[in-house]
Amino acid sequence: AQRVTQPEKLLSVFKGAPVELKCNYSYSGSPELFWYVQYSRQRLQLLLRHISRESIKGFTADLNKGETSFHLKKPFAQEEDSAMYYCALRRGGSQGNLIFGKGTKLSVKP
Amino acid sequence: DSGVTQTPKHLITATGQRVTLRCSPRSGDLSVYWYQQSLDQGLQFLIQYYNGEERAKGNILERFSAQQFPDLHSELNLSSLELGDSALYFCASSPSGAYNEQFFGPGTRLTVL
Questions:
Q1: Which of A31, A68, A89, B19 has the smallest CB count inside 10 Å?
Q2: Do residues B8 and B110 make contact, with C-beta atoms less than 8 angstroms apart?
Q3: How many helices (H) and strands (E) does chain A have?
Q4: Which range has the worst mean pLDDT, A5-19, A25-39, B78-92?
Q5: Cα angle value A99/A104/A109 (rounded, 5°)
Q6: Distance, in angstroms, between A34 CA and closest chain B CA?
Q7: Are the C-beta atoms of A32 and A50 separated by less than 8 Å?
């Protein structure tokens, strides 16, 4: 079955500390993976995708096919990073729908 | 705002009723997706339309239906509503082409009393 698992519901860190949001997936084909973020009172927006291998707002994520993981990392958390983070897997090609994890709420304390 | 728009923002109704949620995609986007977000199930894909045609179905109940019109806006119809249908309903749109991104609307919060 195709599934995305985010084991942590809530992650709380202090400003300046490293952050790692975990995501594991189950997919029979070649996965296309994404991280979406939802800031307070804002809509869901794409943070980054594995295919582009870019760093957005200091966040990076590496696809590890051996461990079927796509963890999101940032070396130094900022208060403005506080938000809900969703890992998602796209099925069915470029027009396919997304399968989301249940999300992790990141809280960065001053 | 040229992004995805959804109306209404909030909807409160009673069990057994029927409601229609509306979504206008970004200009030029042919694909529309509907997702349901509830506390226990998280974000779940319901249905997708591409240029007026149904493209894929997810965990959509038979009481729910959708369509995409020639102007590409989409409507999600929910009937015989139950308490458990209370959720946030998101619409997303994406352009055609490889490696495209899904752009989400602000959502419609449905409360069934």
A1: A68
A2: no
A3: 0, 11
A4: A25-39
A5: 155
A6: 10
A7: yes
Going from the C-alpha of A41 to that of each of A37, A84, A103, B91, the distances in angstroms are: 12, 11, 16, 16
Distance CA A63, CA B36 (A): 27
- State the Cα–Cα distance between residues B79 and B85, nearest whole angstrom: 10
pLDDT at A91: 78
Indicate the average pLDDT of chain B. 93
Q: Looking up tokens 């998101």, which residue turns up?
A: B90
- 3-state SS assignment for residue A97: coil
Given a cut of 90, is residue A100 above it in pLDDT? Answer: yes
Interface subset of A 62-91, CB within 8 angstroms of B:
86
Is A94–B90 a contact, with Cβ atoms under 8 angstroms apart?
no
Residues A15-59 pLDDT 10s: 999 999 999 999 887 788 999 999 998 899 999 988 777 778 899
Type and span of the H or E element at A5? strand A3-5
Give the Cβ contact number of residue A64 at 10 Å.
11
